Amino acid sequence: MKHSATLDLLSDKVVLYAEDEAGIRDVVVEILELFFHKVIAVKDGDEALEQFEITPPDILIFDICLPKTDGLDVIQKIRKKHKNIPVIILSAHAGHEYLWRAVELKITKYLVKPFKKEDLEEALRLCCEELSGNQSSIMLTETIFYDASKKIVIVDGRESKLPKSESRLLEYLLENKNKVISCEVIEEYLWGYDGGSHSKEAVKALIKELRKKMGKDVIKNIYGLGYTLEI
User: Fold this and answer.
1) pTM over 0.85
2) DSSP letter assigned to residue 84
3) The domain containing residue 46 runs over which residues?
């Protein structure tokens, strides 16, 4: 099935979806799996916070009335550290008190249940626009650029297409630019959800491939600590 070029941006992204009603959750997960690299579905607010720390997602889709911790309260906690992550609300509640709280939390789209598949896809397009606005055409150095929409590194005008694993790693380092990220944290971000047997060597191999395409000076190895993308 073909999707629009905009929604293709989600092909290497992770979405965290919180919904306590199993029937609705199953239907929405089936839709999300058409577009996302990985869909993490949870049933309550506490589990959402836990999973967010285990595998940081690129987009959040939350119901409001979640067991244990209210969906908007979860988003508020996440917003303290991650101010730009796109968020879609799927809720049966359209009361002003909910809408105002959502506005304050800079929600990308508020959909009232029941909603159509087309409405959810349009909300996802808005999220893609936010992600593109945050990431497209990033200048890494005076001669090196990264086009997030096309997953391309441009060095002295020459383009190199990045595989999913390399683009996810580069975008994670961009999100945490000028910070030192350990191999363990990178490994958990890239593969923690699939239970695979990836190792530090796998991280080093990805770093090596990125350096082949971008040069050795953009991603620096801080001995004994990890890697940092200096911009």
Assistant:
1) no
2) T
3) 7-134
Q: How many domains in the chain?
A: 2
Residue 2 inside a domain? The answer is no
Determine the Cα–Cα distance for residues 156 and 118; give it in Å rounded to an integer. Answer: 41
- Angle in degrees, 0-180, between the axes of helices 183-191 and 200-214, rounded to the nearest 10: 90
- Asked if residues 24 and 120 have their Cβ atoms less than 8 Å apart, the reply is no
Q: How far apart are CA 51 and CA 68, in angstroms?
A: 15
Tokens at 76, concatenated:
């508020």
SS3 (DSSP) at 104: helix
Shared-domain flag, residues 121 and 160: no
The string of pLDDT tens digits covering residues 64-122 is: 989 999 999 999 999 888 888 999 999 887 666 667 777 778 889 999 988 999 999 99
Q: Looking at the structure, do residues 21 and 81 belong to the same domain, yes or no?
A: yes
CB neighbours of 106 closer than 8 A, spacing ≥ 6? 79, 83, 87
Same domain, 115 and 12: yes
Report the pLDDT value the prediction gives residue 8, as an integer from 0 to 100. 82
Using an 8 Å Cβ cutoff, are 134 and 9 in contact?
A: no
